[in-house]
Amino acid sequence: MSNLESIIQSCKEVAFDLDFKQAKAWKGESPGRIVVGYLPIYMPREIVHAAGGLPVGIFGGGDRKPIVKGDAYYQSYICHIPRSVMEMVLDHQMDHFDGFVFPSICDVIRNLSGMFKQHGFGRFVKYLDLPQNFVPEIGGRFYIHEMEHILRYMREVNGKEVTAEDLNHSIRLYNRNRELIEQIYDLREEFPWRLSLEEWYYVLRAGTVIPVEEHNERLHAVLEAIRQPIGTPQDRIKVVLSGAFCEQPAIGLIKAIEDAGCYVVEDDLMLGSRMILGPIDDQSDDPLEAIAHAYLTRSRYSSSIYDVHQPKEDRLEALVQQRNASGVIFASASFCDPSLLDAPIFQNAFNVRGLRYIAFQYSENINQFKVIKEQVGAFADSIKLWEDEPAEVSIA
Ligand code: SF4
Fold it and tell me: From CA 212, how far away is CA 340, in angstroms rounded?
């Protein structure tokens, strides 16, 4: 097994360990260490790291967790992730977590945070209201208060006073993490056959459950490996995958998209790990202000952000062009309001602009993809055959 293959294999194991054993082992190595779980999409992991904690992403049980108890907590017509998260926590798979952060994205996540609170899971449960006002004196101040609130919760658990130096050190590590991730995306855009989306997904997702120091080492090794001319180019089109930022599709679906004739060169699967574009100031006397400033001024577009001055359809189109992609695959979790409410905005704009796309829905626990694979295959074939023809334009 090559070094790259063994990194991918170990990332796969750790990324899909629903018992979070690595986090448990990490916590046991030294007194004062804490584990803080967070739900999608984005939370500033730097503050957890600075407080001597390990931020651990919770992305549901996927197709590996049968739901027995979780269904009783939710009505049938909502997405699947809250059921599997409830199942996991009720099965004591997160007993070693000290606290939980639920970033604001939708009512489902808000309700889930309430259930965690009612059950008394962890030492604290924080619903993190991310700012929707982008004026620094308003939204920025508000966001800083939210981060201070999380820091206070963590201090009550391990007593650690977080200094500006601690925060700047953590910011530096996460800056490096984001930099390495973007370098790999850039290289994959040029040579997507060197690292499939499935393989890349394992590596990327592992970064949400292991220490950032360790993830940076793995990313660096992957980057070095795919700088070599490995693999064989296939006759596939380049696409952007959009809308799958919270509940994650099963691995089988990710494979089906590429096997159907696509190279996914951009996606929002682990959007939170890439939310901030470019480095955050790591020399500031007020690092929380630096984190808030970066969020307000340099966030990726997302369904969790309403920024009237930067229409997200323009930003998605720019991403398609930046990645030299031929089209977009809109993949939304069933009943995911944020993704499904954004989709018509994107699709209406793309109809007018003549950009090609296909759309479908999935659920984390369903791994029958024959129909989707056929649809994606037809989409890829139509682009290969008629890429030079203008797309049919329909005015919505
Ligand atoms: S999948 Fe969509 S609706 Fe469900 S919790 Fe996530 S953002 Fe909310």
Answer: 32
Domain boundaries 20-166, CATH class = alpha beta
Which of 42, 59, 81, 304 to mutate to test ligand 1, by most ligand atoms within 8 A of the CB atom? 81
* Ligand 1 midpoint to CA 146 (Å): 22
CA of 332 to the centre of ligand 1 (A): 9
Q: How far apart are CA 394 and CA 379, in angstroms?
A: 17
* pTM flag (> 0.85): yes
pLDDT tens sequence across 153-202: 999 999 999 999 999 999 999 999 999 999 999 999 999 999 999 999 99
C-alpha 120/C-alpha 99 separation (Å) is 10
Q: What is the pLDDT of residue 393?
A: 43
Residue closest by Cα to atom 8 of ligand 1: 106
Looking at every residue in the chain, the average pLDDT score rounds to 94
Closest CA to 220 of 286, 282, 176, 275: 176
Render pLDDT for 64-117 as a digit per residue (tens, 0 to 9).
999 999 999 988 889 999 999 999 999 999 999 999 999 999 999 999 999 999
Degrees, nearest 5: CA angle 190-346-328: 30
Amino acid at 304: S
Measured by CA distance, the residue closest to atom 2 of ligand 1 is: 336
Q: Are 273 and 207 in contact (CB under 8 A)?
A: yes
> Residue 210: which of 218, 221, 200, 201 has the closest Cα?
218
Per DSSP, helices labelled H in 77-163 are 81-90, 107-119, 141-158
* Ligand 1 centre distance from Cα of residue 80 (Å): 8
Using CB distances shorter than 6 Å, the residues near ligand 1 are 79, 81, 105-106, 108-109, 246-247, 333, 336-339
What gap in Å lies between CA 189 and CA 351, rounded to an integer? 25
User: How is residue 189 written in tokens?
Assistant: 């855009």
Please state the φ and ψ torsions of residue 148, each to the nearest 5 degrees: -60, -35
Query: Bridge partners of 38?
Result: 57, 101
**For residues 22-48, average pLDDT:** 97
pLDDT band at 368 (very low <50, low <70, confident <90, very high): confident
**Angle, CA of 365, 346 and 364, to the nearest 5°:** 5
387 has a pLDDT exceeding 80: no
Q: Evaluate if residue 390 carries a pLDDT over 90.
A: no
Domain boundaries, the chain: 20-166
Of the candidates 218, 227, 220, which has an alpha carbon nearest to the alpha carbon of residue 195?
227
